[in-house]
Give the backbone structure.
Amino acid sequence: MFNYFFWVIPFASILALIFAYVFFKQIMRESEGNERMVKIAGHVRKGAMAYLKQQYKVVGLVFIGLTILFTIMAIFKVQNGWVPFAFLTGGFFSGLAGFFGMKTATYASARTTNAARKSLNNGLRVAFRSGAVMGLVVVGLALLDISIWFLVLHFFIKEADITHKMVIITTTMLTFGMGASTQALFARVGGGIFTKAADVGADLVGKVEAGIPEDDPRNPATIADNVGDNVGDVAGMGADLYESYAGSILATAALGAAAFLSQGAAIQLKGVLAPMLIAATGTILSIIGIFAVRTKEDATQKELLRALGRGINLSSILIVIFSLGALLWLGLPNPWGIWLSIVSGLVTGIIIGKSTEYYTSEAYKPTRSIAESAKTGPATVIISGLGTGMLSTAIPVLTIVLGTILAFMFAAGWDLQNISMGLYGIGIAAVGMLSTLGITLATDAYGPIADNAGGNAEMSGLGEEVRRRTDALDSLGNTTAATGKGFAIGSAALTGLALLASYIEEIKVGLIRIGHTTLQLAGGSVPTSHATLNNFMEYYHVNLMNPKVLMGMFIGSMMAFMFCGLTMTAVGRAASKMVDEVRRQFREIKGILEGKADPDYASCVEISTRGAQHEMMLPSFLAIIAPIVMGLLFGVAGVMGLLVGALSTGFVLAIFMANSGGAWDNAKKYIESGVLGGKGSTAHKAAVIGDTVGDPFKDTAGPSLNILIKLMSMVSIVMAGLTVLYSLL
Amino acid sequence: MFNYFFWVIPFASILALIFAYVFFKQIMRESEGNERMVKIAGHVRKGAMAYLKQQYKVVGLVFIGLTILFTIMAIFKVQNGWVPFAFLTGGFFSGLAGFFGMKTATYASARTTNAARKSLNNGLRVAFRSGAVMGLVVVGLALLDISIWFLVLHFFIKEADITHKMVIITTTMLTFGMGASTQALFARVGGGIFTKAADVGADLVGKVEAGIPEDDPRNPATIADNVGDNVGDVAGMGADLYESYAGSILATAALGAAAFLSQGAAIQLKGVLAPMLIAATGTILSIIGIFAVRTKEDATQKELLRALGRGINLSSILIVIFSLGALLWLGLPNPWGIWLSIVSGLVTGIIIGKSTEYYTSEAYKPTRSIAESAKTGPATVIISGLGTGMLSTAIPVLTIVLGTILAFMFAAGWDLQNISMGLYGIGIAAVGMLSTLGITLATDAYGPIADNAGGNAEMSGLGEEVRRRTDALDSLGNTTAATGKGFAIGSAALTGLALLASYIEEIKVGLIRIGHTTLQLAGGSVPTSHATLNNFMEYYHVNLMNPKVLMGMFIGSMMAFMFCGLTMTAVGRAASKMVDEVRRQFREIKGILEGKADPDYASCVEISTRGAQHEMMLPSFLAIIAPIVMGLLFGVAGVMGLLVGALSTGFVLAIFMANSGGAWDNAKKYIESGVLGGKGSTAHKAAVIGDTVGDPFKDTAGPSLNILIKLMSMVSIVMAGLTVLYSLL
C-alpha cells in the first residue's frame, strides 16, 4: 500500500486499546470493599450511567437531524457524499470513548478507596490505571477512526490528479471532527451543568445551611455531586480532548496536503502522514510513561506527585527525541524546522500549565492574597478573585503568541510570507502538544476518580487513616486538574488556529466542486486548485477594513460571552432546583439529619440530569447555528471574522474563568488548612462563597469555551459549501 | 475665507460656552443653605479640588514627557511638527472642561439640597442646569479647539496640492485627540479608582461592620465617597465623552478628506466640514433641549423622568431633521445616504441605552431575577449577576453590528466595496450619536450632583421630606446614568472603528513624508497618495491568515482583560487601605460612633487620592506602551490586529461589566424597596455583597475600557510614523 509509515498509526491505535483493556481487567480484579462501599459506588455508577444514557439519547436525536441535513447537502452537491458517514463515526467513536472511560471510572472509585485501605501507593495505582484506561481509549479510538477513514477514502475516492485527491481525502476527513465536536459540546456543556448544579446545590444547603461536611451521606445531593465528577470531569473532559486530538491531527493533515501540494504526491503524502505519525509515536510513549508511574509502598504525598510527574516528564522528553527521529525517518523536507515547531507546541503547553499552577495553587502569592482578602468578607474575595483571574491571562496569551509565531517561523523557514508552511507548523505544534495525550489525560481522569474515592470513604464511614490517604490522592488530583485545564485550553487555541486555516482549504475544495476553477484577482487570474491562502484572503477581502470581517469579530466576541452567560445562568437555575429538593427532603424525610433515614439520592440525580439536558440545548443550538447564519449573511469574510473573534476572546475568557475558579477553590482550601482563622472563621465563610462562585467558572463555563472555539470552526468547515454557494452579501 | 459653512462651528462653540456661563451664574445666585450644609459642601469641594490638583500634577508630568517625545519625533521627521502643540491643546482643553464641570458640580450639590427644601422641581432645575454646564463646556471647548486648529493649520501648512493639504490638516488634527485621550485615561482610571475605593471602603466598615446607614456623617469615608462621585462620575465621565466627541469628529474629518479626495478640493472640504457642522448643529439643539427640561412645582418622580426625557427626545428629533437640512445646505454628494448613516448612529445609541435600562432597571425581569437569587445567598447573587451581565451583551453587540453595517452601506451607496465612503459613514454615525452630547452629558452629570445633594441632606440632618425629594432626584440619576453608560460605550465602539480606519490615513501620510511615494502591489504599482484602503490592506497583509494580525488580536483581547484586572485589583487594594483607616478612626477617636466627635474626613480623602494616583500608573502605562511595542515588533498588521482585538473584546467586556454592576446595584435597591424581606433580611445582605462587587465593575473597570479602546488607537495614530519606519517583522 501507499506507504509503510502509515501502518504505524493503526498499530499504535490497537496497542493503546489493548493496554486499555489490560488495565481495565487489572482494576476489575481488585475488590470493591465492604457492602456499604459497594452500595455507594453502585448508586454513583447507576446515576452516571443513567445520565449518560439520557445524554446519548438527546445527542442521538441531534445527530440524526444533522445527518439528514448533511445527506441533503450531499445530494445537492453542497458537500461531498462521505460527510454524513464521517460525521457519524466521529460522534460514535467519541461517545464510545466517553462510555468506556466513565464506566471504568465508576468501577474504579470504590476499588481505589479499598486499595487505599492497604497503602497510598495501592490507591494511586488503581486510580491512575483507571485514568489511563480513559486516556488510552481516547487516543486509541481517535487513531483507529483516522486510520480506517484514511484507508477507505484512499480506496474509494476516484480522482486522477493524485495531489488533488489527497486534498479531497484530508478535507473530507476533517468533517469527521464535526461529529467529535458535536459530541464534545453536549458532553462538556451538559456534564458541566450537571456537576455544578449538584455541587453548588449540595454545598448551599448542606455546608452552609445545615452545617454538615462535604460528602456527608445525610446530604441527598451528595451522590449527584459524585456522579457529576464522573459525567463532567471524566466523560466531559475526555470528549473535549478527543476532539482537540482528532481535530488537530486532521486539520494539520489538511494543511499538509495544501502546503506540500506543489512538491509532488510522494512528499505531499509525507506531509499528511507526519501529524498522524507524531500522534502514533506519542501514544506508544504514553504507554511507557504510564508504566513509569509507581512509587514505594509508604510514599508521601510529595512522592506521589513526583511519581505522576515522572510519567509525564518521561513521555515528554521521549516525544522530543522520537518525533525528530520520526520526521527524519519519514524524510519530510525541513525536518528540523518542523521538529522545532513541535517542540514549540510542547513548551507552550508546559508553560501554560505552569502558569495555571502559579495562579491557582495555594503555594503562591495570587491565591494567598485572595485568601487574605477573605478577611474583609465575600465582596473583596470576589473582587480580588475576578481581578486576579483577569491578570492571569497575560502569561498564557503571551506564551501562545510566542509559541505560535515560533511554530510558524520554524516551519516556514523564517519567511513570514511562506504562509501555508507556517500554518502547517502551527498545526503540528498543536499535534505535538497533544501527542502524549494518552498519559496527560490519564492524570486528568485520575482526579475525579480520587475525588470519588474520597467521597466513598466519607460516606462509608471508613477510618481516619483511609480518609487521610484518599484526601492525599484527591489533593494531588486538584493540582493535575489545574494543569490539565490549562493544557485543554492551550490545545483548543492552537487547534482553533489550525482549523481556521483549514477552513480555507475546505472553501477551496467547495469552489472546485461547484466548478469555480479560477479566481479573478488584481494581479491576474489564478487556478482555484493552486491558489494560495493569500489569494483567498484577497479574493474574499478577508482584511480588517472589511466591515463583514469586523462585524463578524464583534459577534464572535459576543458569542463567547453569551455562551458563558448561558451556562452560568443554567447552573444557577439548576442549582436552585437542587436546593429546593434538598430542603424538601430535609423537611419531609423524618430523621434524615440524624442519619436514621436514607435520603432519596435518585431524585437529586434526576434533577441534575433533567436540568443539564434541558439547559444545554440553547447554548448548543447557538454554537451550531451562529456560523451557519453568519456564512449565509456575510460569507467567507464574515465567518472568518466570527471564528477569529470567538477564538481570541474565548481563549482569554476561558483562562480567566478557569483560573479565577481554581484560585477561589484553593484559597478556600488554604484557609481550611488552618491559616487566617481556619475552618468556620469569617474568612472561611467568605472563601466558601468565592469557591461556590468559582464552581461554574472553572467547571462549566470556562471549559465549555474550549468546545465553542473548536465547534464553530468545525461547523464552518462542514458548511463551507453552503457559504460558497449561497452567501447573501 | 474657504467656506462660510465653517463659521457655524466657532459660533456654536461660543454659544455653548456663553450658555454654560449663564447657567453657572444662575446656580451661584442660589443659596447654599444652612451652616452645616455649607460646611459639608465645603469639605467635598475642597477634597475634590485637592484631588484634581494632584491628578493634574501627575498628568502634567506625563504630558511633559510625551511632548518631549513627540518633539524629538518631529525633529527626526517621524511625525510632523504640529503634533506636540496639537497634543498639548487637546489635553489642556479636556482638563479645563473637567475643571469647570467639576467645580460647578461641587458648588451645585448643597444648592440642589437647599432648592429641594422648597420643591422637587426647584431641586431638579438646579441639579440639571449645573449638569448642563458640564455638557456645554465639554462640547464648547472641543469645538473651539477644533475650529482654532483648523484655521491655524489652514493658514500655516504650505502644500501646493490642495487635496493633499487637506489630508495633512485632518490627519494632523487627529493627533490632538491623543491629548484628550491621555487626559481621559487618567481622569477615568484615577477617578474610577478613587470613587470606588472610597465607596467600597465606606460600605464595608460603615454599613456592614458598624451597621450605620449610607452617607452617615459618623463614617469618616463618607466625604471621600461624595468626593468620588465628583471626580469619577463628573470629571471622569466628562473627559471620556470629550474624547469620544472630539475623536469621532476628527476621525470622520480625516476619513472625509480621504473619501472625497478624488472629487476635487471643494467637495473634499465639504466632506471634512460635514462632521463638524453636524456637531455644531447638535450643540445648538442641545441648548434648546436643555430649556425644555422643566416640570411643574409639585411634580412626581415619574413627571421628573418625563421632563428629562422630553429634553433629550426634543434634541434627538430636531437633530434628525436639522442634520438633513445641514447636509442639503452643505451640498455634499449623497446627502440622503449620509443622513441615513447619521440616523443609524442615533438609533444605535438609543437602542443600546434602552437595552442597558432593560438589563439594569429593577422594573424588568433580569434585575428582579438577580434579586430573587439573593434568597439563596451571596454566591447565587454573584453567579446570576455575572451570567445576566454576559447575556446582556447580545443586544448591544447585534445593534452595533447592524447599525454599523447600515451606516456603512447607506454612505457607500449600498456598495460593499466602496470602503472609504462606507467608513466615512461609520464615522459620521458616531458623530450623529454624539451630536447632542451637550444635553446627554448634562443628564449624566446631573446624577452625581443629585447623589451628592442626597448625601448633603443626610449629613446635615435635614428633614424626612427633603431627604425623600433628594432620593427621588438621585434615583432618577441612576436611570440616566445607566443610559449614559450604554451611550458612552456605544460611542466608544463607533469612534474606535472610525479611528481604526483613520489609522491607515495616518500611515499613508507617514509613508509620503518619508518619501515612499508608490506601493508595489500584485496588480501593479499605485501612488501612495491615491492608494485605497484595500491597497494598504494588501500591501501590509492585514488579513486573517497573517500570524501578525492574529497574534495582535490575541494580545488586544488580553489587554482588555488585563486592564480590567489591574483596575479591579487596584480598587481592592485601595479599598482595603480605606477599611483599615476607618477601623482605626472608629477605634481611636473616642465618641465618633455616638456622634460626639468629628471623624477625620481629610485623611480618607487623602488615602483615596494617593491610592488612585499610585494605582493608575501601571494600567495607563500599559495602554500607552502596548501599541508602540506592537508597532515596532509586528508593524502595521500587528497594530491593526491589536486594535481590533482590544476593540471587539473591550466593547463586549465593557458592556458585561457595566450591566452586571448596574443590575446588582438596582437588585439591592429593589430589595430595599421592601420585597423579598426588605432591608436587613438575608436576601438584602446578599444583595449588598453583589452591589459591592458591582461597584468597581460599573464605575472603574467597565468605563476605563472605553478609554482603552480609543487611547490605543490614538497612540497608534500618533506613532504611525515610527511604525512605518522602524517595524521589525
Q: What stands out?
A: Chain A touches chain B through 92 residues (CB under 8 Å).
